[in-house]
Amino acid sequence: xxxxxxxxxxxxxxxxxxxxxxxxxxxxxxxxxxxxxxxxxxxxxxxxxxxxxxxxxxxxxxxxxxxxxxxxxxxxxxxxxxxxxxxxxxxxxxxxxxxxxxxxxxxxxxxxxxxxxxxxxxxxxxxxxxxxxxxxxxxxxxxxxxxxxxxxxxxxxxxxxxxxxxxxxxxxxxxxxxxxxxxxxxxxxxxxxxxxxxxxxxxxxxxxxxxxxxxxxxxxxxxxxxxxxxxxxxxxxxxxxxxxxxxxxxxxxxxxxxxxxxxxxxxxxxxxxxxxxxxxxxxxxxxxxxxxxxxxxxxxxxxxxxxxxxxxxxxxxxxxxxxxxxxxxxxxxxxxxxxxxxxxxx
Length: 346
Known about the structure:
Elements: E1 2-6, H1 15-28, E2 33-37, H2 43-48, H3 69-78, E3 90-91, E4 98-101, H4 107-118, H5 130-145, E5 149-153, H6 160-166, E6 171-176, H7 180-206, E7 224-231, E8 235-236, E9 239-240, H8 242-266, H9 272-276, E10 283-287, H10 293-300, H11 316-345
Helix pairs in contact: 1-11, 3-5, 7-8
């Protein structure tokens, strides 16, 4: 089983959409996939589940009555004397082999508690089990569901939950969009991720989460960077418009000259020949803006590339153009999923 985190400290870069789309394509290829919604905003959960579903409480959309990440970790967070067990995840009814562990708005409270504990000289005893509980949960879920992949949809922050989960992942992908703020976020990641790697090594050396009283030991490692996914840009005559291309070039420069060297020094990179075999320049895919198709996809709870003509709000030549775009998106995400499998098998 492989754990892949979708992570960027900048919001609005289609991180959740990409996580769902990649998971869908991996499942379509026969892989058994679990999506985990770690973001307290629960956007991944909302994009898949209907709040009017009988399994949910419509009046409390972000605190689902069904199994969710917060309830699954509750024994460790509350120290209630019970062990973590694998919850029954939600079957994504429209896609065989794909499951979801829903999010919960209460994860924002865990963020605050965990940050306080991890930034103190001695970790608070009541919270010592929480970092390791995430890894224990993922192992249990993997065994219970015979999973090939767990995909983590992370919040756009540099908080403690993201820090712990990134260091529990095997790989990570950085979705981004061509604007000045993504360039700034890339430079920020180049500063922060090496700090997280140093903290990981400190945890191991000092055995901070390996006391005899700790039920769930936390053993962080350094995940490998698979690459970026650049998206949400406009095209003209089959190419990115000039304004977007300028920022795409700036993003590539920031990745090549700032992010990658920092990741190399901290052990986050795969062997260079793995990137070179795809001629990637560390970019897994470039995906133009979905535009009006995103509304249709959200309405049916499926990725854009799975839409049919019956799902569209348009007719005639406009519908024909949208169908062609859907086919193009399908090709892009199919190739992306194949690339991810090959890189993680290398």
